[in-house]
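Sequence and structure are no longer studied apart. To make this concrete, we show below a single chain and its fold as tokens.
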Amino acid sequence: MDTPVLLLNQNYEPLNVCRVRRAIVLLAKGKAEPLAHHKRPLRTPAREVPRPSVIRLRYYVRRPRPTIKLSRREVLVRDAHTCQYCGTRGPDMTIDHVKPRRLGGRRRWDNLVTACRPCNLRKAGRTPLGANMRLLRRPTHPRSPYSHLIGRFFNGRLDPAWAPYLPAQLQRAS
């Protein structure tokens, strides 16, 4: 019952990720329709019920586009745990201010990057130009408004049944 289910709005836009129990309630009440099922069904004492993987609401839900809040975790996800100075990847990364705080650098998406410890120590409290270092990519606000839906439930693997319903950039990221 803990299997995640992709919940789509009436226009097939990803709306949320819920658990199987919630999906079955929505289906039973006639508020949603199934679009894809898992291979293994749910077994009850009386019968087998197909386990939903993707469901779509029968009505349109208006809501503002989700925004991704600035946090250490989200900066690491945006930069794919890759040092933006040397390109090394790893779980032990730090967050670096491109323009140091002592020089007036702010805590914003366009001023924070992922850096490995040696690069962060080498750059110290200087700008990349002052430390004779180049950024591999310019830091920006993350583009995908749906990444927060998926990131909570998966570590690099998506249900293949979700692929037709997710934006292309999100499929590449996972």
